[in-house]
Sequence to fold (287 residues):
Amino acid sequence: MSIIVENLIHVYNQGSPFEAKALSDISFTIEEGEFVGLIGHTGSGKSTLIQHFNGLLKPTKGKIYINNLDITNKSIKLSEVRKKVGLVFQYPEYQLFEENIYKEVAFGPTNLGIGELEIKNRVREALELVGLNLEEIADRSPFELSGGQRRRIAIAGVLAMKPEVLILDEPTAGLDPKGRDEILAQIKALHKKYKITVILVSHSMEDIARLVDKIIVMDNGKVALEGTPREIFKRAESLEKMGLGVPQMSNLIRKLREKGINIRDDILTVEEAKQEILKLVRSKKNA
Fold:
């Protein structure tokens, strides 16, 4: 599913002494099947923005189109939109409430009114997508599991709805490195297998650089930058002015260039840096 945002404005507590503009005239397009990274410092408007995509928040002004359907139109049933747009909040495991894992993952599909066999198939598939086996854990309480496993259960509950857009707000927050790597690998595999549109909100520039096709940078309620990871992370000074970092490899490359070493300025990974440095060494030997 594609997402088109046109001149979006959101004002909290409009008309009151506590009025605050969170989003200011935002416009952009996310194409069907894209994997998009949404970055910005705390308070930049990221969380406010993503809550508009399934109607949890309504714009003060502006339009949002999901697959050319204007979801800001009062005649639209937002329950239908939410079947297609899955939103996983930060620390989703805190929202778990069912007595066992099967019921937890089945909660969303059950509310769709689909048949029991289809629900079981969806639960099984959703658990498999996050690396868990239905038979092994169906009757266990979610609260017996580790933090990383509970996070996976919460994500599986959204996946069981079969969304066409998956939005994840800091899905690895608070996880250890192993849990973080597992969650991100599963999200990447999910995107590759089903070609769904994924929006990843993250403070980890390394994860963003490694995973996404396009980056949208938020700053003070506006879209400050938009482009591929290579295009965005070349602009380290602009990002730093917004309180953001760049991947460690981008920092290294910048320092090498400052010392007069003629190396590409759009390198993001260790492997790319290795290949480029080897090229430079060989060219000096042959000079």
Summary: The chain has a mean pLDDT of 91. Residues 41 and 170 are 13 Å apart (CA to CA). Strands lie at 3-12, 20-30, 35-39, 61-66, 69-70, 85-88, 165-169, 197-201, 214-219, 222-227.
